[in-house]
């Protein structure tokens, strides 16, 4: 608990003209006893937004969260925002 990972991604091409939102999908599983909860996260210009709590099972599961607005600006994402963002997860418990 308390651990977090953030990742960079290959930039989108300039042919993308409209961004309707950001979607993160991760594959997770726990490999120890007890309950584990994670939040997927995005970071834009050092402003972080966490998705909802997800309980981890003993086998792999995919979680998908949508971040429609940029947490830094409060408005729609731009191509530059997407290309500069980080995404990952926090292990809550």
What does this structure look like?
It contains one helix and seven strands, in the order ββββββαβ. It has 93 residues and is mainly beta. The strands form two sheets. Strands 1, 3, 4, 5 and 7 form a five-stranded antiparallel β-sheet that branches. It has a two-stranded antiparallel ribbon with strand order 2-6. It starts with a strand and ends with a strand.
Give me a quick take on this structure.
The chain is mainly beta. It is 6% helix and 41% strand.
Essential attributes:
93 residues, mainly beta, 6% helix, elongated
The major beta sheet can be summarized as: 5 strands, antiparallel
What is the beta-strand fraction? 35-45%
Beta-strand segment tally:
7
Tally of helical runs: 1
Spell out the helices and strands N to C. Answer: EEEEEEHE
Outline the fold blueprint.
Blueprint: E1 4-7, E2 22-28, E3 37-44, E4 47-50, E5 54-55, E6 61-67, H1 79-84, E7 86-91
Antiparallel strand pairs: 1-7, 2-6, 3-4, 3-5, 3-7
